[in-house]
Amino acid sequence: MANVKSLLLGLMVGGTVSAAATLLTTPSSGSDVRNRVKNQGTELKDMIANLKQDGLKLRKQLTETSKEGAALVKELTQEMKKSVEEWKDTVEPHQENIHQYLEQIELSLKDLEEKMKTKNS
């Protein structure tokens, strides 16, 4: 918002300085100069109004985009939680079987070690 105020202030100061320079350096008549200054003032007002409208549109778009982004993040988080829960539900029944299989492998390795010890002795 500070940048917009600085821009507007710069435009107004620049417009005032250019109007004063035009008045002081012009060889035209007073009425011509007044008409040009009036036209430039009107153009400056229009430009400021357009900048203000564009700023408001941008603000509205940013607000909508941030709301949509928050909704998407929330939806994605819910989907990820659901996927993790489904994965847990899928893996959990097999977890006991895997544990038993590992115990069998461990017993087989111990038996093999004992056989190797007796064979080497």
UniProtKB/TrEMBL annotation:
It comes from the Bacteria. Keywords: Coiled coil, Signal. Residues 34-68 form a coiled coil. Pfam families: YtxH. Residues 1-19 form the signal peptide. PANTHER family: GENERAL STRESS PROTEIN, IG HYPOTHETICAL 17707. This is Gas vesicle protein.
